[in-house]
Amino acid sequence: MKIVGIRKSDFTARTGEPVKGYTVYVMDNIVPQHGQGQSAEHFYLSQRKLTEMNGIDPFSLLGHEVKLYYNRYGKVDTVEVLD
Fold first, then answer.
1. Domain segments of the chain: what residues?
2. pLDDT at 55
3. Which residue, among 63, 70, 67, has the nearest Cα to 79 in the 3D structure?
């Protein structure tokens, strides 16, 4: 999948704690047996998560092919750059 957009997206958690991070938009090819064309998705990367990933600048990922790894709660845990 390819990262096609990144938007700064801060919010306040239910606990009242501020959360800073980014919404990341990706596109991927639809598997032929399921349809045609491309699908678009998005996920959230908090600044804390980016710091855990060696302080990566999210905007440096723009335009790159990536593989996403998820934690047991279905949240993106790691982003691996493939190109």
1. 2-81
2. 86
3. 67
- Total-model pTM: 0.88
Query: In the structure encoding, which two tokens stand for residue 53, read together?
Result: 């990933």
Cβ atoms 38, 28 nearer than 8 A:
yes
Backbone angles phi, psi at 74, to 5 degrees: 80, 15
Q: For residues 40 and 27, is the Cβ–Cβ distance under 8 A?
A: yes
Contact 10, 19 (CB under 8 A): yes
> Would you say 8 and 22 are in contact if contact means Cβ atoms under 8 Å apart?
yes
Q: How far apart are alpha carbons 7 and 48 in whole angstroms?
A: 16
Our separate counts of H helices and E strands in the chain read 1, 7
Q: What is the pLDDT of residue 66?
A: 95
The length of the chain is 83
